[in-house]
Protein 1
Amino acid sequence: MGTDAPMATATEPQILTLAQWLSPAYPVGAFAYAHGLEAAADQGWVTDGASLERWLEDVLNHGAGRSDALLLAAAWRANDPKDLSDIDATARALAASKERLLETTQQGNSFAAVTQVIWGEDLSGLTYPVALGAAAAREGLPLSLTQTMYLQAFVSNLIAAGQRLLPVGQTEGQAILYRLCARLPSIAAETSDGDLTRLSATAFLTDISSMKHETQYARIFRT
């Protein structure tokens, strides 16, 4: 369980640890997952930079962005392995499709494998936000910073996926990321208590697109 206050000021080593964990270079394979965005592009639901930004805004505010931040906070606050196991079971149950479950479990497994070798943390068998929350607590990393950097990495990866699928250039992609990042501290603050009784997801079209992707004929991404 994390012992410092959620809004505690981070030290430089803590910031560097999170930057390493959430860097595209950390081998969790995030680049392979589009979170249903590929099917959304195939269906014509997302067609350009403006619709991509609206889609990702909904994901952050009403879908996996908010729910992952809440699960991460719950894991950071977990009192013992039993609590952590229950939180992880909830994360798995929340996955709306086979591919959504694959996405969170495979990235969690990859994160756990590398982190155990370097930091000695046994996080095996946990979904990605739960594993990250548990690791951050054990390393004494501030909750708020962990949540916001996780969300930034999450949406940044989806923007990169959108740039491969849509006519969205690098400058436009970075402008979208800049605007969406302004919302991340608020999401972190709203979910910092880790109260899973408030867990919900209402970005239904993103769930439907992840289901459609399972049977899509030609695919670039795994989800």
Protein 2
Amino acid sequence: MKAMERWQSDRMQQPISLARWGHYGTPVLVFPTAGGDAEEIERNNLVAACWELVDSGQVKLYSCDSVAGRALASNAGSPAYRMWLLNQYHQAVVNEVVPAIFADLGGQQRLIVTAGASIGAFNAVALLCRHPELFAAAIGMSGTYRLQRFLEGQYSDDLYFSSPMDFLPGVEGPQLDTLRQRRVILASGEGAWEDIGESWAMADALGRKGVPNRVDSWGPEFEHDWSTWWRMLPQYLGEVC
């Protein structure tokens, strides 16, 4: 079963869509790659790769438009605007997308698992670290965790508060206590267009704060492509859900 909804996000000052597949199970929010929309994971057969888990009721998949990723990938507006939109995107996920997921489930029955590839991995890990009270685990595949190359060397508070590589060293108190009860899986191939060093850097930032995580190398035969993520995502969902 697939369903779609779309609304105007006042936080981002533009529309956002949310797609869902399945009837019940652990809610999994899959972030698209850079400029992808809510249905990208279906068009690229990632939903099909996970269908056994969906059909059996082990997971229910959700995905929302990568609004900020689209702006980063297309160099929309100024760097300051892109950083503002990234922060607002995270706010929209927490305050708009997550309540829509819980409403669809009939209430906050359980924590959400986040997942994504490339910039989607960045969003999956960032949202878990920013709001561990809402999310149970993050699965980052072929992740890009440092976004400065999309921002012409610019920096702002919006980027600081959006980027776990930046804000994690300052996380303390109840947020850190809760985050230490979560888990992060950072998977990467080492083939074409992959950079497993990004995953190791993210793991180091998490490890320094005592956040459970691991890096899985899938080796040189796995490239930065959907065929890699078809293999990764169902394996890790089976592990954490």
Protein 3
Amino acid sequence: MIIKDRNYWVISKNSNVDYWSQDASPEWTPIGTFKYHPSEGEGRSAEPHYHDADEVWIFGYGHGEAWVDDKIHEVTPGTIVYTPMGSVHRFQMFTEFDNASIVTRLERQKRGVHLLVDVDGPPEPTVPGFVIPGQENTGPIEDRGIRCPFSELRIVEFGVGECIAQGVLSSNEHWLVETGSVRLGIDGFEVDLSSGDVAMLRVGAERRLYCPEGARMALARE
């Protein structure tokens, strides 16, 4: 299921499988893909690598460590890790965990893979990455620098029957369902979303979210 409109795209889990796809999102957002990675075993890690795009990890739960350009950061529930193009990074998780990830559109050589220094050569850095601990990540990002396109990146928990009142968006806004279910009303159209589904909403659109049974979602606001 992919629902396309001038002011929104709704992308189902089954249509959101290619992590490096360049046509999985509308042209009015810098996001290439926004994807949920469900619970994974403890001890999982990723080797040191970099990308021809920016990448963001938003951890729903779990504990571990992230390395960003040789600096080690603790990972806790709600932590975001922003790694700009050319930033060497990796993570090591010590517990069960899940997360959401975003990759922006590919640049430079447009290689949609993990790039390794020993194989692909040293990266050309852009700007420093940053990590915001979960307990501090409760609203807009105070200092995102000159490259990060997102003003807010966080996990939002909804209780049973909770909703976000209808309103006109002042910026592009993107929601990824991690757990639970959500009814999205957008410009008079309604659709039910479940785990792995993504709604990409354009500035000026009128949006309402209702969670009949509760939900946990990842929010990316430009």
Protein 4
Amino acid sequence: MNAIHRSLLTLAALFVGTIAPVGVHFKVEAQQGSAAAIDAALAGSHRSGANKARDRYRHPKETLAFFGLRPEMTVVEIWPGGGWYTEVLAPVLHERGKLYVAQYGSKPPFPYQQREMDTLAAKLRANPDLYRAVTPTALNFFTNELTIAPPGSVDLVLTFRNVHNWFEEGYGPPNAAQLAFKAMFTALKPGGMLGVVDHRWPDPATEDPGAKNGYISEKRVIELAEGAGFELAGRSDINRNLLDTHDYPEGVWTLPPDLALGERDRDKYLAIGESDRFTLKFVKPD
């Protein structure tokens, strides 16, 4: 091999060495950008001290990273309640993304739902720039408000501790859960993701069909999602709580933040913390 050949091979090796990592660097930078955006949202002054205190139980940074949240996404948050997660999602998405908050609809069946909607509406009014990516929609089974976003327009749908409600009396018809998963599937683009967090019942054979204790099994949720056309894409123990014994007088609401028993055994339940939760990720097939 002469000197010219050696020089050419050396240049080729250098060229390959500089090109090969580009995709890796781009991916790492994108991940760092998403993580930084979530960190900034979590640290924001718009969040109350009480809401920030719950981060230790809800692990929002790790949970949203597992679901693949990125600042340029179009996202739907199902039944956001008073907006605990909305306070995190909206700042991440407000520059380049879009957030639909699918609320309880025009005629929510329970008074607490209207109160939560009023709380979230007040947040949006108080800080319109922060929440400029937010568009309210609805998921109400009684009024047939089932279009949570334009069909096929969404990258990521998120539902936190809601699926068990769709089996409880008063929240909808017997097929409410099926209707919800169909609505989520319809909103997503092919390849889009669905993230589900809920209170875990550990044994599918003994769970309450009506979920009156607030718990639901992973098995039932996976069957629901697959019945709607989703494929299971991953599961995580980010939100597992091994101290939760799942056997309380007032169900999951015995634990914080509700503390349904008031001062009775309060320290005991505070020591357990918030509920044991599963974290599941599904994909809408291409």
